[in-house]
User: Fold this.
Amino acid sequence: MSEPLRVIGFGHPLLDISTHVDIPFLEKYKVVPGQTTLALPEQLPVYAEIKQRDDVIYVPGGATMNAIRVCQWLSKKQTCSFSGTLGDDDFGKILVASLKDYGVTPLFDTVNDFPTVCFFLLFY
Assistant:
């Protein structure tokens, strides 16, 4: 019997964060509906507020990590890993736990001077 194929992805880790918001929330953070943009300095408090919500969905994202998650799903065995760099923060810890939930072995380097990259999907 042959050994299962081992796959490792090297890439830019990204945590996709989805939640439902209302129009006042969008106005508070000056978010324009239907637009994709980098967070402005005055929008950064959205991170802390989102973490307090009950309806938040966290999904490991980014092109390479998405491909590795699909490969792991197809293999049905613990065969896939992902390597990259995360911030030493709550979102980095959430990303690691979420990736493990998908059966992918996380192999991350963590840094103190750079936050974990997040992508917010705000549904209204």
